[in-house]
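Researcher: Last one for today. Full complex below.
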Amino acid sequence: MASLTLLKWTAKTASRHARSLVGAGARLAELRAVNAGLDGIQRRFASTDLLKTELYDFHVNKGAKMVPFAGYSMPIQYQDSIMDSTTYCREKGSIFDVSHMLGITLSGKDAISFIESLIVSDIAALKDGSGCLSILMNEQGGAIDDTVVTKVDGENVYFVVNAGNREKDLTHINAHLAKWKADGKDVSITTHEDRGIFAVQGPAAADTLQKLVDIDLSKMYFSDFTVAPIDGIESFITRTGYTGEDGFELSIPSHGAKQIIEALLSAGDLKLAGLGARDSLRLEAGLCLYGNDMDDGVSPIEAGLTWTISKSRREECAFVGGDVIKKQLADGVGIRRIGLICKGAPARNGSKILNEDGEEIGHITSGGFSPCLKKNIAMGYVKKGYQKSGTELKVEVRKRVSDAVVTKMPFVPAKYYRP
Amino acid sequence: MLSTSVRQGARQLRLVRNVAVAALANGSAQPIGAQIAQSCEFGSAALVPLKKTELVSLSQVGGNILPFAARGYATVVDGLKYAESHEWAKVDGETATIGITDFAQSELGDVVYVELPEVGATVEAKETFGVVESVKAASDVYSPVTGEVVEVNDALVDDPSKLNSEPFEGGWMMKVKVSDASDLDGLMDSAAYSASCDE
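Model: Here's the assembly. Have a good evening.
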C-alpha cells in the first residue's frame, strides 16, 4: 500500500516535472520556481502571499534571484551560477539562509518520552547536547517529516522541521500533545518563529565560525549542539547540515540575523549560496528531500533510512506507526531507495527506471547533473531485488532510454567532523 | 566575422559585449561595442540592452572587462528574428539557422545537456524541436519556423556550454529549410523582442 502511494505520486508529478518546464520558453519564471525541486509545495502559494525572512532585503541587495519556496520568497542563487556555487561550497564554504525552516523546543519532565512516541530514535540514550536524524511517523508507517532531533538536556528537546511541512507537523504534534497533557504529563511546546536559521557549510565553515564564538569548536563533533553567543548574540549551534560537508546550523534571534550573516561573510572565505546549490549538494550527499524522495506514503525502511531506527527501539517499535515498522523489519519491504549514475539526458523526478528487459521497475524521485562529479546522478525507488550496488538498469527520459548503474550513496564522500 | 580580440573565450566575449552594450546605451562614442557591431557576422548588428539597469560608460570601467556587467544585461542582435519563447532565427535564402537568445541562456544557467532533432526530421512552427537542460531543469525549445532540418550543431552535444558562452554564434542549434516563409512574419525584430523581455 505504501509503495503504491509513492508510485502514484511520482507518476502524477512526472509529467509536471518533465514537461511543464518550458523554456528557453515563455515560462521561465515558472521554470525558476521548479529549480528548487519542491514543486508541489511551491505552487500552492501565489507569489502575493509569500512570506519573507528577516533577510529578504539583504538577499535582494546581494543580487539573489528570489523564488517561491514552501510559501516563502527565498534565494535560489546569487551572482554565481548553481554550478559554481555548488563546487565552491565543497572547496571553501557557503552560507545558506534557511529561515523558512522551523525550530521547535519541547520542554518538561516528559518531553523526551513524548518526542520518542512520535519518532523512531532513542533520544533518552543520547548524551546531553547531541542529536540525530530521525523520522516523524504517521499511523501507516509513513514519514510525516524528517528532522534532526537534539537532546538539549533531560527536559528539553530541540528539533527542526521542513518549511513545507510546518502546518502538517504542528497539527500532528499538537494533537498528540493535547492527549499527553490531558493525561497529566509534563510537556510543553515552543515554536521558534522569532528565530532565523543559517546553515554554514564546507571546509572553511568551522574556522570562520570560530572567529565569532568563544567556545572551542574543535571539541564539538558532528550532531553536537550547544547554546552560545555568536558575535555576542545568543544562538543555538548544531554541528550538522544538508550538504555532506562539515558545518553548522545556527538558530539566531531574528533581530541578530543580519549582524551575524554579515559577520560570517567578513570573517573568512564563505560566500552566500541559495536553494539551487543546496539541492545539488544534498543530492550529491545522497540526502533525501522530503516531498520528493520520501513522503507520507513511504516508510523509513523503504527509504533506506532503517539506520535511523535505534536498535533499542526495534523490538518494541513503541512509536506512532510502530506496528507497521515492526512487521517491515521482520518481513522486509517491496521497494527500496537507491542511487543511480545515469548516461544520456539527466533523469529527474518522475523518470521511469527500467530493468535490462525494458520492464518498468521504479521511478526517479530526484536527479540532475552533479556539479562536482560532472555526471548525472539520481535517486529513486526500485522493486526489491534491484537495489544492489553495481546493478545495471535503464532510465527513460522523454521516451529515450539510457544506461544507469545502481551506485552506493553518498555520491560525493561525506566529510562530517567526528572524533 | 568577429574580430580576433573578441575571440578570447566565450565568457569574456559576452562580458565584452555587455560592457559595450552599456557604453553604447550611455551615448559614449566609438566604444568596443561599435567594433563588435561592425565585425559581427550577423552584419550590421547593433547590440542593445535588454534589461534596463544602471548604465556605465567605458571611461568608468577603464576599458577593463568587469564582471559587474555579467548580470542585468542580455544582448540581442539586429537582423535576426525572435520568438516570444526566446528562440532566434537567422534567415539566409530558404534556410533559417535557429538558436536560443542570450536572455534565455542567462535565465537557464549552466547548460549541461542538449537534445537536437535528427537531420531530415520535420519541425513545426511553435512546436518543440529539442530540449536544453541546465543543472536544475529541463526546458523545451520551440521552432520559430516549419520545415525540414538540414543540419544540426553536433558540437553542442559534446560541449553544451557553448549555448551559454555564444548563444548567437557557436551555440546555434539547427538549420531548417523553411517551407512557409510567412512563419517569419509572426516573429519579432530585435527592438520588439528587447521590449518584450523588459516587460
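Residues 1-46 of chain A have pLDDT under 50 and may be disordered. Chain A touches chain B through 33 residues (CB under 8 Å).
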